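Reopening: structure tokens for the zinc ion complex, inputs below.
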Amino acid sequence: MRSKKRILTGLTFCLLLSGCLSLASVRTVTSRGKTYAPLNNVAGYYGMKVSQKGENRIHIRSQWNTLEFEVNSRRCWINDTLIWLNHPVRKIGWQWTLENDDFKTMIDPAVRPYAFLKNIGSRIVVLDPGHGGKDSGAVSPRKVYEKLLVMDIAKRVRKKLQARGLTVHLTRDSDTYLTLSERAQKAARWNADLFISLHADSASKTAKGSTVFILSRPGCYSTHSYGQGAPPTTKYPGNRFDIANAVLSYRIQQNMIKKTRQKDRGVKHARFKVLKDAPCPAALVEMAFITNPQEEALVIRASHREKIATGIANGIAAYLKDIKRAR
Ligand SMILES: [Zn+2]
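Re-run output (same inputs, fresh job):
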């Protein structure tokens, strides 16, 4: 009886959200051996409306969600959060299209997380403060050490998640050195349900903003190496969680930017060691550029570090809520 009621509630949700029964699959087109989802069909699939915004942007929106695609580009925004696709939105024949793989592994999981996360764990969170000990990570002009900053953030996030009744482990809780392999091994030993590696960026003085990285998909370029050589096809342990990674990273980026108001550099793809080895859904957060004078000043303030931590904790909580809803 109870499960019947749950099924009915779920069905009502689907109907409300999509306004149609065509959710089985989106209508695709094929070109040179690749499958594409025309944006018009994506809109139809969700029961959403399409409109063109200026020369370069296409909007798909409903009462609940807004998707915005930049044409001939890998950038798209899901409810205003920047997501880097693996392939550019391009014109095939007369229609603008998305590679179907991007639709299935990035867009649809972010728009309908409840349809994908049924068998994903939600109890044990492992936070991984990057670097430590002899490895300082980045050091800013005013001597902000990445290894100490991310430790501070990890402890703040832990406190917030514990207050929500979650079990939280830190791969290190003092200034000690850990190899990258040890971090994933610890997560595996603790039966982690999700793994978040915490970092701060460094580059030129002008670079700024926050990024969340997830493991690149086999056969796809990393966001920064697009177009150089053939993309690696190796499937890593972390690739078992590509769909959950998409939802997790989207939720963290969405909530972190909402809280900190820092520049949104988006969800990106990379083959970082901790993401490749992750025994569970995983993301790597680059919270700010400490080599940027404004962001360095921000992270020196405890009140701003509290905002970063709140954003990350809220993102994790939103992802866990998606999992609950999926069940
Ligand atoms: Zn780092």
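Residues 130-131, 137, 146, 199 surround zinc ion (CB under 6 Å). The first strand starts at residue 29 and ends at 31. Marking as resolved unless the reporter disagrees.
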